[in-house]
Fold this sequence. Notes:
Elements: H1 2-6, E1 12-15, E2 19-27, E3 40-43, E4 58-62, E5 65-67, E6 70-74, E7 77-83, E8 89-92, E9 102-106, E10 111-116, E11 122-126, E12 134-140, E13 145-147, E14 153-156, E15 162-169, E16 178-182, E17 186-190, E18 192-193
Parallel strand pairs: 2-17, 2-18, 4-7, 6-12
Antiparallel strand pairs: 1-17, 2-14, 3-13, 3-15, 4-5, 7-10, 8-9, 11-12, 15-16
Bound molecules: copper (II) ion.
Amino acid sequence: MKYMTTLLIINFIIISTGIGQITGKIETDAGKIKYKANTVVYIEHINGEFSPPEKNPVINQIGLKFVPHTLPVLKGSTVDFLNSDNVLHNVFSPDKCANKFNLGNWPRGEVRSHKYDNFGCESVLLCNVHPEMEAYVIVLQNPYFAVTDKEGNFNIENVPPGDYTLKVWNEKLKAKVEQITIPESGTIQINFKLIK
Ligand SMILES: [Cu+2]
């Protein structure tokens, strides 16, 4: 347990350009570099009601993979699952918070959908045709979230000024929760270290 406390936050500084922006990077130990990508960084709660987007977020099934691998959505969002492969794919989730669904099997070019109603749900997506296929849908309260790229970079824009709790979700690892203050103008730069 002793080493864990030394591995947590790397830095948290305010730099003077931009307005209401949170930018940073996810770091990992050498053996866990693949977890830098597909990590969600999000503000836990912001006052207000946020409607799901008019255009449904899409998870593509292409090259025998779910793309994106991790999809954060607002509560009430309907996710469209598109099959772009020349084989049948299935989509199901055993997770109670996602209402344990199974959309059946469908061919290339077709879409089936599922609505995510439960705030805080962190659910897995699986394909019963291809056991190696896996993805995650994370249901959030507000649209101030980002998913890291391959290098672990993230950027959340147009965040209203205020005090917030910034959290990290990763399929395997965890990171320290951070309390942040978004100034009237400026960019918060914050890096996280993923640990077990
Ligand atoms: Cu499949």
